[in-house]
Structure prediction request, 147 residues.
Amino acid sequence: MIINPFNAGANWRWDNFRLREVQCHCDKAKEEGKPVGVRYPGCKVVLVDSRLLDFLQAVRTASGQPLSLSCAYRCPMHNEAVGGKPETTALPGKGSQHLYGLAADIKRRNLPDDFGTALDILVGSQGGFHEYDWGWHVDLRGTRSRW
Ligand SMILES: [Zn+2]
Ligand SMILES: [Zn+2]
Prediction:
């Protein structure tokens, strides 16, 4: 199910996450002086898949660690501005999973060193995982992906 601002109120069941954490961060990027989608500055659009929220909440609950998300859903303009893989008409569904509300970037912050290893295992064959200096990308694209 795709959670959007109109149905979020009735369906929200993720105690440790808020809608604003998973909405497009065009506005945050603008505040930080980073590139934003020029046509939609501060769009705040949210179209996040409930499966992603279920996964994040399960990780939060199992680990007992608060998760700080640098990004989840990205509108196409913001995705382009941050260098995300665009959606292509030739291969629908093949662009950045952030475009489909199926990906989140989790900040490393104060999380334990082995947190990434655990995330990798938890994502398993459900989707993608990649470790960055700042943290980890996870997505639930439906097939295993590592890069
Ligand atoms: Zn946006
Ligand atoms: Zn990502």
Summary: Helices lie at 8-11, 19-22, 26-31, 50-63, 76-81, 115-123. Residues 24, 26, 37, 40, 43, 45, 75, 77-78 surround zinc ion (ligand 1) (CB under 6 Å). The two ends are 27 Å apart (CA to CA). The chain has one domain: 2-146.
